[in-house]
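Key idea: predict the complex, not the pieces.
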Amino acid sequence: DGGITQSPKYLFRKEGQNVTLSCEQNLNHDAMYWYRQDPGQGLRLIYYSQIVNDFQKGDIAEGYSVSREKKESFPLTVTSAQKNPTAFYLCASSPGTSGGVGYFGPGTRLTVL
Amino acid sequence: RKEVEQDPGPFNVPEGATVAFNCTYSNSASQSFFWYRQDCRKEPKLLMSVYSSGNEDGRFTAQLNRASQYISLLIRDSKLSDSATYLCVVRGGMGFNTGNQFYFGTGTSLTVIP
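Result:
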């Protein structure tokens, strides 16, 4: 089955630790995205990548880093510099054309203890 | 100004009712338009794309007015299972960096009451 997978589903982190969230897709999509969603709020773009080895900052990139070494994979690292990392993190992918639909993974809930 | 604006609701309607959601977008160069549904603590899922001529999928009808930069979603004969948050999403615009981005409204909450 084609789709997007994210792992882990739930993640607990101590303050001061870096953590990496996984996102993999087998849809052969060029573009991948990371969003953050806080309770009762909309999605905010963290980073996006339109092609392998290239990515751009979104609206709230501070305290986060990404890599895009393979088309299928777009991991997100939440660093200790992120002041309030507890949130629901969603990865998405889409065809590279502007008309393509976006498909989301099931998300990772990160809680900082 | 936000790229996409929606009335957050909540909308509480009885089963069988018709309910309409509206959305406006700010970038006239936007090229693609969608409605997504998000259930509590789940990821957003595509409900339907929105085409210039308007389109229907069962009980759901979407309309696009490019001149007014306005998108709507109409749900007829509401079911309990329609209870969710509905996200208005716009894609595309001028420039390489913005052309492939998705812009999300904050969502409109719908609860269908027995």
